[in-house]
Structure formats: structure tokens, C-alpha cells
Design brief:
It is a single chain. This protein is of the alpha/beta class. The chain has a domain at about 435-500: Golgi alpha-mannosidase II (Immunoglobulin-like). Helices cover about 25% and strands about 15% of the residues. It is built from 15 helices and 18 strands. The protein has helices spanning about 5, 30, 35-40, 75-90, 105-115, 175-190, 230-240, 260-265, 285-300, 320-325, 330-340, 400-405, 405-410, 415-430, 430-435; strands spanning about 10, 45-50, 90-95, 125, 150, 155-160, 195-200, 250, 275, 310, 345-350, 435-445, 445-455, 455-465, 470, 480, 490, 495-500. It has an eight-stranded parallel beta sheet with strand order 9-8-7-3-2-1-11-10. A hairpin with a 2-residue loop joins strand 13 and strand 14 (about 455-465). Helix 6 (about 175-190) runs parallel beside helix 7 (about 230-240) and helix 11 (about 330-340) packs parallel to helix 14 (about 415-430). It is globular. The model has no long low-confidence stretch (mean pLDDT about 95). The structure holds 1-deoxynojirimycin and magnesium ion. The site of 1-deoxynojirimycin has 10 residues, from loops.
């Protein structure tokens, strides 16, 4: 069994995790100082959102140098120390790799825009205006209704940016770009990283002639950029990873919400190892909707040997606890689902605490995509600054003390202990980690499925309804875990999830 199928990945947004040097921004030494907490919690793989030098227009997803560490976060030496300490504890580390675009402050772009004859001109996507001076196609950039093309007066052409105008898209059709980007992977692989989360990889190949029929909707061209050549680029990337031992892994951010389209990005075991399946973020809290999502995902992935992933929260979306109306019972049920479905789960830092989004007052809004709420700093302690040595860059969630690690660590009934119990259960249980799934049904607001492995069967039941009284669960078995605490085999409380060995 390959390690990444068994892994539980914990996403760290470095700016918001832990600050060691009193500048209000989390950093590598901060992460390093909490490795024992993560081991205690029971996760085994860390994914760090970008730590590269960046002007931070998109908080690190605008990379100005792929082969160094942003000073705010620390140094290469500190990074090496973090990898060493993580590996010594059995933790693996994935970096975020942002291949689709650089920062406009990357020296490659400065060269590219300096003249039409610059050797790096073709490293980015430059096009002439259409007649009447309009942009080459009608694509709209992310988070706005503005064009994905910006006019460069000095050289008289437009450049493409699927995101901010300060995030020009690299031209992956250029072989030098591909080889140079491959070398950036090798740089970190040589330093011992265990793999990469790959930002918007489905955008690497582009069909610039495909005008968007759904005009003026932010990023609506994204589904158009599901083009065959991207799969070639992914096979080349896979080959780079396979130059190394110990199965270095790729997790692609394929922002196509249909699991059938996502499955294609696994190739024939020669493209991505794993891909996000973001449909979960948009699936309502409803037994039938989840049954359909799980069934669609399994039908898309299982026949082609693609191993699914599951995610409830990340740094781009409203946190699951907020989406579920801050109802602790549902939040625990959702965590049970995340950690018992077939596939590799991704846990976003703070999810183990049941953290909600922070309310960010207008004068503290910093993100151009309006995502500050889910990026609020982790509350470690109950005191005023919650373990941060200086006021952090974003406000804390309301009632941060109550959500803090310190408060929850001492409370065996807390969300933190519940998450740890689930992680421990999953860790001990081969059936939950790699068993097949069947018996998927939804009725009367209750979802059930069975995981089975080597003759052992474990049933998961989730009551999505939180208004009715208890419902009977007509199964004989041993209750392994209940999200509602006190064990009552045979019936489910509102919004309760149970794991039952049959
Ligand atoms: C997806 C990342 O998750 C998001 O945070 C970022 O803004 C865009 N890609 C652009 O890199
Ligand atoms: Mg700091």
C-alpha cells in the first residue's frame, strides 16, 4: 500500500499557524515548534501553502523565486531543519508548487516584458490585440469581472493572467519553461520534500481560441482549460517525481468540480497521484446529496484505479464549521465523514478545533479574493493574544479562547479530542484506511456506507437531520465511535455519526 493512500494530510497556511519572531506572521520556526502537537494529534503528512519569496499580492501564490524561502517565513537553513525534525517524527512534508503563474515581480517576467525580442519573451503568454484593440479572448480573471488580459503599452501586446494582473501566466508550451519548472521541483526534492500540492494544474495547457460562452463570470473560462496537452505536461512532471525514491507524491488542484473530469487527471497511473475533488465543498449537508457525491466519485475513480481525496475546508473557502451553521454536532458528523470515507483526507489547520471563519472588519480586509475569514490565525492559548507574540496579520475568530488548543487539550469532550480519537481509530483500522466501500444508501436523512477489507466490515452511519428525535439503526454490531459521546448502539441522535464494526 503506497504511503499517500494511507496518509492524513494536514494543510498549514504558514502565515496563520504560529509566529516565532514577533512580526505577527506565522513562520517556519513556528511550525517547527508545533511538530509534537501534530504528532500528538495523529496526522502524518503536512502540506505547507507557499513559503517562497513573494510580494504577497495573493499571499504567496504569487511566487517571485521558486528556489528560496520568503524572509518573513525564515531561511533555507530553517526549512532544512523543519524537514529534518518532521522526518525524525515520522511526518512527511509537501510543498505547494505554483506552476501556472509567477509574480509579476519574478525576474523572468521583468525580462519577458522588457522587449519583444527578449529571450524570455515567450516564457509568458503574449498576444496582439484583436481588431479595435480588444483583448485576445473574452476570458475574465479570478475574483472580478475584469479581463484576464492586461495591455502592456511598452511592448504593445497583451499578457494573460488567469488571476491578478500581478500573476502573469507562464507559457507551458515553451519547453524551456517546462524544463526550468521541473528543475524547481528537483531543487526541493533534493532537499527531501515528500511531494507537492500543485496549484491549478489543469490550467497549464490552454486553448486561447476558446472564447468563453458564459461571458463576464469570474473564472468561467476555467472549465474550457481542460485540454489534452495538459496531460502531457503532467506525465513529464510525474517522470520528474519518479527520478526519486520513496514515492514523492503529487496532489493536483484540479478546479473542475465534476469528479468525472477530475479522474482524468490521474492518467493511467502516470499523471497525478492524487487530485482534489472539490465537489464536497459545494455539496449541501443532506444525506441524498452526499450519497450522490460519493457514488459519482467512486464510479469515476475506482474503475481507473484513481484514489480519491476528501476535503471539507481549505484556505480558499468558508470553513466547514461556518458552512454548517456553527452547529457542533454537525461539525463532528462532518469530521467523521471526512475521516472514514475511502480516500486520502485533507484537514485544514484549525479544523481539528472546530474553528469557524473570523469576522473581518472592512478595514482589516487584505485578500483580493475575500478569503480572509478562513485564514484567521490559529488560537493556541486562552490569553489575549492566544499564543501569538504580536498582534497577528488577521483578526482572531470570535471566542477564540474557547476554540484554543490550550482550552480544548484539557477537555476530553472537546472537538480536538474527538478529532484525535477519530484519527487514532483510522490509524489503527486497516478497513477504514484502505477498505473498499459499498452498501451506500441514504434514507430518512441518514447516510450509510460500509467499508470492508479482508473479510472485516465497518459501517458508517451519519444522521444529517438535526431536528427529529433519535432514529433507530437496525444493525447488529460493536460501536467503535459515536460523534455524540455516550454510546447508545441501536439508535442515532440528531446530527450524530457512528462507526460500527459489523
Ligand atoms: C488556488 C489557490 O488555492 C489560491 O489560494 C490561489 O489564489 C489561486 N490558486 C491562484 O494561485
Ligand atoms: Mg513571524
Amino acid at each position: 500500500m503506497t504511503w499517500w493512500r494511507d496518509a492524513v494530510v494536514y494543510q498549514i497556511y504558514p502565515r496563520s499557524f504560529r509566529d516565532s519572531d514577533c512580526d505577527g506572521v506565522g513562520d517556519l520556526e513556528g511550525i517547527r515548534s508545533e511538530l509534537d502537537y501534530l504528532v500528538w494529534l495523529g496526522v502524518d503528512t503536512l502540506w505547507l501553502s507557499p513559503i517562497y519569496p513573494s510580494p504577497m499580492k495573493d499571499f504567496g501564490y504569487d511566487v517571485a523565486n521558486y528556489v528560496d524561502v520568503e524572509r518573513l517565513f525564515g531561511s533555507l537553513e530553517q526549512f532544512d531543519g523543519l524537514i529534518r525534525d518532521a522526518h525524525a517524527r515520522g511526518l512527511r512534508v509537501l510543498l505547494d508548487w505554483v506552476p501556472n503563474h509567477t509574480s509579476s515581480e519574478h525576474p523572468w517576467f521583468s525580462e519577458s516584458r522588457s522587449s519583444r525580442s527578449n529571450p524570455r519573451r515567450d516564457w509568458y503568454v503574449w498576444r496582439d490585440a484583436r481588431e479595435a484593440g480588444s483583448p485576445p479572448n473574452n476570458w475574465v480573471r479570478a475574483w472580478s469581472e475584469g479581463s484576464a488580459w492586461t495591455w502592456d503599452g511598452a511592448t504593445g501586446q497583451y499578457y494573460l493572467h488567469c488571476f491578478l494582473d500581478s500573476q502573469p501566466d507562464l507559457n507551458w508550451a515553451n519547453v524551456d519553461v517546462r524544463q526550468t519548472m521541473h528543475d524547481t521541483l528537483r531543487f526541493w526534492l533534493d532537499r527531501g520534500v515528500d511531494g507537492f500540492r500543485m496549484d491549478v494544474v489543469h490550467l497549464l495547457g490552454k486553448d486561447l481560441d476558446a472564447d468563453d460562452p458564459d461571458d463576464l463570470k469570474a473564472m468561467s473560462h476555467v472549465p474550457l482549460n481542460d485540454v489534452p496537452v495538459t496531460h502531457e505536461y503532467l506525465r513529464e512532471i510525474r517522470a520528474v517525481l519518479e527520478e526519486y525514491d520513496n514515492e514523492r507524491v503529487s496532489v493536483g488542484e484540479v478546479y473542475l468540480i465534476d469528479p468525472n473530469r477530475v479522474a482524468a487527471y490521474y492518467g493511467r497511473g502516470d499523471e497525478l497521484h492524487l487530485s482534489f475533488n472539490f465537489a464536497s465543498l459545494y455539496t449541501p449537508w443532506n444525506a441524498e446529496a452526499w450519497r450522490d457525491l460519493i457514488a459519482t466519485t467512486e464510479a469515476a475513480m475506482n474503475p481507473v484505479g484513481a484514489w480519491p481525496t476528501w476535503v471539507m475546508s481549505n484556505h480558499d473557502n468558508v470553513r466547514v464549521a461556518t458552512r454548517l451553521g456553527a452547529d457542533d454536532r454537525r461539525v463532528r458528523a462532518a469530521m467523521t465523514l471526512l475521516l472514514t470515507l475511502r480516500g486520502t483526507p485533507f484537514l485544514y489547520a484549525g479544523e481539528e478545533l472546530g474553528l469557524r471563519d473570523a469576522t473581518v472588519p472592512p478595514d482589516r480586509v487584505v485578500d483580493p479574493g475575500g478569503r480572509d475569514g478562513c485564514r484567521s490565525p490559529l488560537p493556541w492559548d486562552v490569553d489575549a493574544l492566544h499564543g501569538w507574540p504580536a498582534t497577528p496579520w488577521l483578526p482572531f475568530v470570535d471566542n477564540a479562547s474557547q476554540f484554543s488548543v490550550e482550552a480544548q487539550r484539557d477537555d476530553p469532550d472537546s472537538m480536538l479530542h474527538f478529532t484525535k480519537t477519530l484519527l487514532d481509530l483510522r490509524h489503527r483500522d486497516d478497513t477504514l484506511r484502505h477498505g473498499d466501500i459499498d452498501g451506500l444508501v441514504a434514507s430518512d436523512g441518514v447516510l450509510r456506507f460500509i467499508r470492508h477489507h479482508a473479510g472485516r466490515r465497518v459501517m458508517v452511519v451519519v444522521n444529517f437531520s438535526d431536528t427529529d428525535s433519535a432514529v433507530a439503526v437496525a444493525v447488529e454490531g460493536r460501536l467503535l465511535l459515536s460523534s455524540a459521546g455516550g454510546a447508545r448502539a441501536g439508535s442515532l441522535l440528531p446530527a450524530e455519526a457512528q462507526v460500527i464494526e459489523l
